Amino acid sequence: MIPAAFDYAKPSTVDEAVRALAEGGEDAKVLAGGQSLIPVLRLRLAAPTVLVDVGGVGELRGVRDDGDALVIGATTRHADLLRDPLVARHAPLLAQAAAQVGDRQVRHLGTLGGSLSHADPAGDLPGAAVALDASFEIAGPGGRRTVSAADFFVDFLTTALAPDEILVSVRVPKRPGWTTHYEKFNRVAQAWAIVGVAAAVRRENGSIAEARVALTNMGSTPLRAGAVEQSLAGSAATVDAVASAAGHAAEGADPPSDAFASADYRRHLATVLTRRAVLAAGGIA
Amino acid sequence: MTRISITVDGVRYDDDVQPRTLLVHHLRERLGKVGTVVGCDTSNCGSCTVLMGGESVKSCTVLAVQADGLEITTVEGLAGSDGELHPVQQAFHDRHALQCGFCTPGMIMSAVDLLAENPDPTDAEIREGLEGNLCRCTGYQNIVRAVRDAAATMRAGASEPAPAAPEEAPAPAPAPVEVGS
Amino acid sequence: MTVVDERPAAEVGAPRKRKEDARLITGRTMWTDNLTLPGMLHLAILRSPMAHARITRIDTAPALAAPGVVAAFSGRDVAETQGSLPCAWVVTDDMVHPDHPPLAVDEVRHVGEPVAVVVARDAASAVDALGAIDVEYEPLPVVLEMDEALGEGAALVHSDKGTNKSYTWIYDSAEAGHGQAYDAATAEAEVVLRKRYVQQRLIPAFMEPRSVVVDPTADQVTIWSSTQIPHVLRVLIALVTGLPEHKIRVIAPDVGGGFGGKLQMTAEELITMMAARRVGKPAKYTETRSESLLAAHHGRDMYQDVELAARRDGTLLGLRVRLTANMGAYLALLTPSVPLLGRYMYNGIYKLPAYRFECTGVFTNTTPTDAYRGAGRPEATYAIERAMDDLAAELGMDPIELRRRNWIGHGEFPFHTVAGLTYDSGDYEAATDKAMSLFGYDELRREQAARRESRDPVQLGIGVSTYTEMCGLAPSRWLGSLGYAAGGWESASVRMLPTGKVEVLTGTSPHGQGHETAWSQIAADQLGVAFEDVEVLHGDTRTAHKGLDTYGSRSLAVGGFALVNACQKVVDKAKPIAAHLLECDVADVEFSAGRFRVRGAPADAEGKTMADCALAVFAAHDMPGGAEPTLDAEAVYDPTDFSFPHGTHLCATEVDTETGRVTVRSYVAVDDVGKVVNPLIVEGQVHGGVAQGIAQALFEEAVYDADGNLLTGTFVDYTPPSSADLPDIVSDRTETPAPDHPLGIKGVGEAGTIASTPAVVNAIVDALRPYGVDDIRMPCTPERVWRAVQGGDRS
């Protein structure tokens, strides 16, 4: 189908983009790669009055080393994350999750910032961002601010971004000594996650010193599996210990029931996938 | 209306378009490039796949304005100027990798993109690499065979001495021609 | 498989690369939506958002005011003239057959039913203006589930009919004289398997969305449509619209798949015709994928209550099938007949003393169902092959052994079945032995045992499917006896051109099957001309004027027969010409390997070719006495019976009992489709068919919510598998020629789909039998499989 008509702005700086959004009012929308937005427009599930295309804003693209963290521009594409040596070295979980997004074509246009701002609870990158304790730099008419991953995802398709704000970059702390894994479960290869688990583990002397586990599609936002993390912290790095900890994965979760899976099944999957993700992340066999 | 300039299969086109115009509709309806087709409205089927700036994209999920200033290659621009088929096209023919042929333009363009990144894929990598393209006729079996064959042909071609172009170089395209429309 | 570049000794049987490919791989294809005509207008269709409602008010005038809009109208505006979409198969005398207006007039009965149309200068303006149409609906009660629809006090889809039942159709082998009565034959049964298998609703999901262009400006109204049935469509348009048939030209250009889904006369075709004729300009309608999934006909959707009676030694005693088939809201072209085509196949390849079949067609507030690849036969094969595996489990017998004890031996053909058909030929033993060897059956059984022993969380299952199917629809007399309005013949014509080139006209209408290649191979052999010198013309009622099109694996079995006959007529006509050129008696002319020679002449004698004769006839300067100066010929073939391909498919699945994920680990298909014209094409048909069958088993289902909204209305939710979701398929053949076909061929279009679905589900159930699982509803999603493992809800 054909989208409803809209106006189009193509700013070349963050300030221009913010101004264009403000001028566009409530019904203005940011266009990054468009891989989530354009299908929605085509089905006429949304009809923004103006699209602000941030594809031409240089500041928003690219990965840079900022000491103890990587700073990744919001319009850095999934395909870029897969190839970037800094990401491979310091945040391989992001690349692994990005590799699970859509398909090659989608990854050639879809952006990190677009996925995070779209905040689909079934998306792969929000969970990874939460597991990595990323923080989000946001620009608006009043200047810039930083929001933690925990505060960024507010609800289903809803983030801390105000209508006149844009996501500038994502800051991902380097985690020397940590290893990670993203485990995704879906119906067909190109589908959204039924459930996904992003796990990061730091091993020390044969046991698990610390772990961070985030769940995809187990609620209206990506969720930290706090009970699993607590149970893993200081536990033995064994299959049994991990399985026991993973049994807590669905605690506190309120997963959806939909055409693909019931809430009960998702709760069960969360435990199995958490076990597998943590074992893979920790290299435990 | 927004003014855009895109180069499609070596020919430059300058046009005023509505911002809502999808790239695939621009290609088909304004430029007459009907070799690229539309198979769905949710970016799943991949029938509309073209190369944009050298990488595969689903042209039904790109606004024409987003393609401004970029080079597009469609299935119509893949064969040599003498009509010699691209190795992927030839392999699809040799391996009976198409039946109704509707998915074929997108499938071929995806395979071209995959082989540009991975010149020697395993069957599993081919299957993964084409996950964004749906075919209802072939069960993909012969498509996988064709892509494997094309990869071998292209590797052999790339390792030959001159006159083959170096692997990195883009395929020679005709000089851009101004076309107003 | 080796493909042929060199000229083979015989074209038939050679793996010729396809002629069609040249345009398809270079983007020079002629899809209907590619067509642009001067002054052409574009349609957008407003569809019902309600599953059942009265239209209390509808006003298209506001849409007329929108930019670019040329016309807008609703069902009320054309109520007297639009006619009713036809159902061509009246299966019982008392079949309830409601009117089916292309544009709903007073009432809508399924979501997606067209209610109004906008005609505009461009597609975007047409879509934009849809929102301006003012419609008010008064909701009516919705009925979606078949048992509920048949129950007392159910809401009625067609209130004026007083029932949701369209028909009940019964076959009884005793009454028909083809076997015993079920009750008597099974009185001594030691085991009776009673199961309800569910055929979920599927969507054909051909890749090319439907598209239609109508040009009313010439003397003939021309309709381009993405259809499987241009010839049938022309007749139907004449009958429905009253437009004289000779004023109608239908063209099916390149068509991007059908699978039965384009075996239809559609509301959209008639609406586009109405729009074009109202405004007097060419008009185009191309559906979106969402519209296609919502409104193009669906398939399957049946409950199969099966009773299979046997002795403990495995001897089958009788089969009873009670089928409940969802018609949807209306009867489309062949809707009521689809489940009945299955009735001939529930007995499968087995010798059964007694068989009783009852089918009830039911209306619900859903999209109409109709043919989808196999049409009735995959459903039948699924039921009997699932039942055979279930019975084998019940008897503690290997499922292949149970089959061996009951199938028709290769020395028993022709075999009169309990369903009243005569199977022409087959060798089930050979196909099964070959499949087992390719599959490594015994080795996989050993691995299965080891995994069971070790309680491996990933269990292995082996599924068997030994199928047959009826190809070559269909003898006209048979169709007539069952209430079908048309025949089952097919036509072919051969035109010899003056320079020795050949045009073949076929009444079949390919949409991916490769007829241009296969027909060229046949004509080349028959006429002794080069493969490249044959052009196959089809899909335009002006050129290939006569035909009944492509469905039901009929094209080669019936149309190929007609082509052989037409070629034979050409040879017969050329003989006197050749005799004249060779200055001998006609009786002394022999035709072989493309040359006419005088009997007894040496094999390397030059003789005369078909091209020599064609040129002589073109000049016509010196025709033998009384001969008409033409070699052209037409033949129409009406089959005397069906052909019966068969095969054995074996599937191994790995089932992750922790998540319910099913992975097809290996798949072997050994098919016997008789002689083969082009093995490359045959293998491709098997691959694609197997993939669609696996898709039914694992991935696809059309799901409605309680209000009748289609939840699987895009490819995000209706999930056809990609390459990454499907296994490698090993395919091979055995070859038992069709005794009644001049080329020995049987047909292959549907075989893979028919065979594969039960093979996959049998494998999943087999993996989980130690968990007490004896059925899983399709598609076997991870959640359903997991629940079955838990011993919970199996639905």
From TrEMBL, chain A:
**Record has Oxidoreductase as a keyword:** yes
User: The organism sits in which domain of life?
Assistant: Bacteria
Q: Which residues form the FAD-binding PCMH-type domain?
A: 1-177
Keyword terms of this UniProt record? FAD, Flavoprotein, Oxidoreductase
Task: From the Swiss-Prot or TrEMBL record, give the protein name.
Answer: Xanthine dehydrogenase family protein subunit M
Organism encoding this protein: Phytohabitans maris
UniProtKB/TrEMBL annotation, chain B:
Superkingdom per UniProt: Bacteria
Keyword NADP in the entry? The reply is: no
Q: Which residues form the 2Fe-2S ferredoxin-type domain?
A: 2-78
Metal-binding is among the record's keywords: yes
* InterPro entries recorded: 2Fe-2S-bd, 2Fe-2S-bd_dom_sf, 2Fe-2S_ferredoxin-like_sf, 2Fe-2S_ferredoxin-type, Beta-grasp_dom_sf, Diverse_Oxidoreductases
Region listing for Disordered, in residue ranges? 157-181
SUPFAM superfamilies (UniProt xref):
2Fe-2S ferredoxin-like (SSF54292), CO dehydrogenase ISP C-domain like (SSF47741)
The entry's protein name is (2Fe-2S)-binding protein
* Native source species: Phytohabitans maris
Automatic annotation (TrEMBL), chain C:
Q: Where is the Aldehyde oxidase/xanthine dehydrogenase a/b hammerhead domain?
A: 26-141
Is the keyword Oxidoreductase in the record? yes
Keyword Oxidoreductase applies:
yes
**InterPro entries for the chain:** Ald_Oxase/Xan_DH_a/b, Ald_Oxase/Xan_DH_a/b_sf, Ald_Oxase/xanthine_DH-like, AldOxase/xan_DH_MoCoBD1, AldOxase/xan_DH_MoCoBD2, AldOxase/xan_DH_Mopterin-bd_sf
**UniProt-listed Gene3D superfamilies:** Aldehyde oxidase/xanthine dehydrogenase, a/b hammerhead, Aldehyde oxidase/xanthine dehydrogenase, molybdopterin binding domain
- Name a Pfam family for this protein: MoCoBD_1
**Keywords from the named record:** Molybdenum, Oxidoreductase
Q: What is this protein called?
A: Xanthine dehydrogenase family protein molybdopterin-binding subunit
